[in-house]
Amino acid sequence: MRRFAIIGHRAVTDPGFSLNDMPGSAGRMDVLCRCVNASFFLSHDLRRDVECYLILKDGIETTILFKGETVRSLNPDERSAGALIKKALAKTCGSEFVESSPGVFIRRGGLDRLLSEFSFVILDESGADIRGMDILPENLLLSDHQNFTEAEEELIAPLPRVSVGPLVLHADHTITVYQNEVDRRGV
Hints:
Radius of gyration: 15 Å
Structural class: alpha/beta
CATH topology: Alpha/beta knot
Strand order of the largest sheet: 6-7-5-4-1-9-8-10
Distance between the termini: 11 Å
Number of helices: 5
Strand content: 25-35%
Order of helices and strands: EHEEEEHEEHEEHEH
Shape: globular
Number of domains: 1
CATH class: Alpha Beta
């Protein structure tokens, strides 16, 4: 199972955001929607061996999980992913994941909890190039359009860092390049 976790620094946890204004009223939820799409979509198919965790930080820290093996109603456009996120945020939840729609889950809690559950590698342009690695990591953590905060950097300081290339890319593009490398290796 390959896992991507993306921190949404300004992503709202209030389901009242407009699908017509995800970059504004939803706190750049559009970035997270593109990451969901990059994690799963192939031409006319989905990657079933992927999980995508969205850590929403604007409000009560919340994690939304998309599971490729069971997700339904996800189409390759931002509004589709946004609608599933909006539905998840409207669901009452606690500290354990609850399903809001097929393959989409929500719980309270964020990065520190996720780091206690899985060993992540940070996708960072200053990390070791994945093309020089014999074995690619399976659990990857990256930030949205903003850098990790000081508090987040403290949490992730001991984690290894890998890169998909020498330039800074958008989060969703980084996922796409990483997926392509996995595909090329036939992993």
